What does this fold into?
Amino acid sequence: MDKVRGYVSTVISYIVLTAYALLSLYPFLWMVSSALKSNREVLSSQSLIPQELHFDVIVNTWNQLNFFKYFTNSVIISVLAVGGIVLVYSMAGFGFAKTRFVGRNLLFIAFLGVMFVPGVTVLVPLVQLLRALGMIGRDATQVATYTGLIMPIINGAGPLSIFLFRNYFSTLPGELHDAARVDGSSNWGIYFRIFLPLATPVIATVGILNFIGTWNAYIWPSIVLNNPDWFTLPLKLKDLDLQIVVQWNVRMAGSLITVIPVILVFLFLQRYYIRGLTAGAIRG
Amino acid sequence: MAQAEMRTISSPAVRKRRKTLLQVLKDNSGFLFVLPAVIIFLVFGLYTVIYSIVLSFFRWNGFGKFSILPFACDPPACQFAGLDNFAQFLYKEPTLSQFFWQALEHNAIMAVFVTLGTIVVALPLAIALNRAARGQAAYRIIIMLPMVTAGIAIYYVWTFIYQPDGLLNSVLGTLGLNLLQAKQGWLGQADRALFSLIIVMIWGAVPMATILYLAGLQTIDRELYEAAKMDGASAWRLLWNITWPLLFPVTVVIVITSINSVLQGYEMVYLMTYGGPAAHTEVVGLQIFKYGFGDQRQLGMASAMSWVLFALVFVVALLNMRIFRSQTEA
Amino acid sequence: MTTPRRALSKLSVCALLPLVVAACATPAAPAPQATTAPQQEATAAPAEQSSAGVELTMWTWKVFHVPGLEAIAKNFEAETGIKVKVSAFNPDEVYRTKITTSAQSGDLPDVLSYWSGGQWELAATDQLLELTDVVDPDWKANFMAGTYDKVSVMPQDRYDSCQKDPKCTFKNINVGQSFSVPYLAGQAFFVFGNKELMKEEIGNPEKAPATAEEWLDMMKTIKEKTQKPGLVTGVQNPDVLHYWLFNPLLMASCGVETYDKIYNGTDTFSNECAVKVLNWMDDIAKNDLWTPDILQTNIDPADVAFSQGKAAFDIGGTYTLGFLIAQGMSPDNILSFAIPPLEGSKYEKLEIGASPLIDAMVTKNSKHQKEALEFIKFLTTPEQMTVFARATGDLPAVKVPADPDKVGAVMVGLLNAFSDKSPFNDSKAEILDAPGKVLKVGLQQFITKETTTDELVKKIDDANKAAWEERGGPKQ
It folds into this structure.
């Protein structure tokens, strides 16, 4: 009896999963299929299977995008931003979880509160700030401009990252800390040699979330970047709209090309990712 | 020991102060770990927050100068408005305030239904995923995919799904549910549009929530279930008495992030309905976006509205935490 | 630790950029107050050096204009040796924000594209080079009627209403001042009919309806006989019903004087001539003559639906015809006519004119104002705008030859349909934000069957009254 019940519920599980997997996948498949259709077919047919395959659209779009150049720019920005986020906020998370100082809890709550600060109206003051720091404008170098682009992104990632790192580090047993202390390690030694290497899962979590966000960012980079040579992929993507009429197949092909690197990063990191969330978000 | 030592020294006062200062510094050295984050916030965050608060008391069209350090507000592009920005959309200007409250009502409906919907879909999905020994990794990846692909292109795909001859109506037709079809398109009918947007939001939020729940489920001790089964508890009882309470912390995280993203989000509405049909999907985030970036150029108004929204999100988040705390203590 | 470094980098920037002191500056140096309008620039620019080797930048928010503008830039370079780099930032909202932030950081391009009529706020904060006496009669002669004169030069009525409005931000701009020249225009009062549907159901496919009532009857007949809905257009965009259908009908029905009075708050929407228009639009909805999903149909999908024979009529803009043909519709199957006025309208036929959409302007933070000015002059010559028209299929604000070999047959059709005597050229109506929004939502509410003409009239009038009160009283 119990066995039957178990069997039935397993079957139901698979039905639920398959149904939802289709729902998850459908829009993505639609995007892929549209990239292979003619524009007229995109607008007139609901079928996922193109009547006629137009691989030339993807090839042309790829060439038009000058993919590697802008891909490199996007990689530089995303990697630096994610690197900065992981370094700065893993330290902060460790500080909040495993060390003691005056006003620790208050500061932590203050950081969390910043999470809800609205984003729209801060663009103007940010640009004024970057201007004062020499990080924006026609005379700013690429290094300075990218710094100006990345630092606010790092700042914006603060609250959630600190939250995840702190919670993760608090789940690690106190004995680790004590043992190292007995060995005469300073807090810094403990952080770098013991805690950071243990934090792979949460690094993957914070990394992937922010990689997706930074990679897809559109408004902020279009504000900061003036020199087309420094553009990121999403900024370059808009240059595909060269005709008065939107070419949906070209747009979809461009989106597909842009999203593939993210999917690869995601596939690579997802294994760690889940463990990171388990530890980071659950045991609050 | 330290005290004894101090008494023997000739100028104990100086010595004492230096020593304790050193000690204080050492005791608080953990702060150094937090320092980079604090510095980044002070440089790149604080000014913008203050600026945005101050701006909400001014009328400014975005040209000319408005800055805090040094303070500058050059008329006529910039004028001091006091509380007028807030008054305008809260009650004073009949049209503006009517649209604001209507938008807020839509936001509230969205927040409630997106949050509930996300939980109702994600939890069974996570339980199913947890059961599926074979193929779990593959299903997990596919279910998480919208997290990565969700973006402008995907919103457009949904508009195609919602057309009168789109996927949704076809599926309903095949199932014989013609009554449920939206003959004028799911985004075109006053009574369906908001609901249709909510579905897309749930679709976008489910992957993250599912993974959070799955992670939570994997930490629950199997023995708890075995013991309860011995006592003859039904599956429903197991869910209600063991799974749900133990996953409650996860639910709180989901609720807070969901409400925050619903109240602040506007991209989806911007791309899919632009607030239509006949303002039935107007949301506050979109209004802020239009005031801040649109042709009306009222950045002070946009700021004021943002801060009202901030206050709301903050209060709701606090209430959640409070409920959470009382639940876990009980 | 960071403070000195920050100060240092700030210092070095300031040292490098003597021109942009404003933000570096210590206590003083707020941006120059623009209480008196700027008078003397351009020609006063430093020493007459050779312009060759100079590189200008130009921004727009229309990505599909870039190839056309680049083609002109290439011609310009061949003639003067001055390079022009064209960049696009879209959508509109991002472009506006980009301009706001760039004005803050002193990074505006040499040549800026901006919405026609929106340039005053930029000019009022001293961002733009004044062109008042620079645009001489020869240059002025290039522009189509109702473009430069109407929107690029500050008109008396706009000045007066600004002076009255406590919130107006360009009080320092005087009548007759000018800071920009238009290069793109548009107009959208055309109806396209599917001849095949018209032929079978109403006999004569070549007969355009003379009145709106007749047009409505045509739609009804076609709907009865074929089950095909009568009308499609991009209603999801809230501006479409308002500007493409309501305004032309209102203008014809009331005449320009009453039209202006209604919008400017000295007459009301309860005027019989306006009520008639609202009733007619409500009738379209009541008779279910719109395509079923009209409220989620945007401009492009509407044209696609029409080209596929899903509706008998389509209301379109400047480039609709080109789009329909690109969708595979035969030009022989399309009947085009101007929106027909209601019976008993003030005008029996509505003359259509071009209205300016995009202006080009030279920014003050340009280091090459002379060259930039030279470029916008070059840009707005008929020869170069012909190049633009052919490359983009969009309508220039400059008179281009109606020659199919040069600009294409579709464009020629448009050009020939324009009249210099359009009442819109004389209109001084200002459509304020709040009542505009109420109207747009209300027109959609006819389709969702949530409002009636009476209710809507009351709502717009209340909103319009409140909005004008706020601005110091109706515009006389």
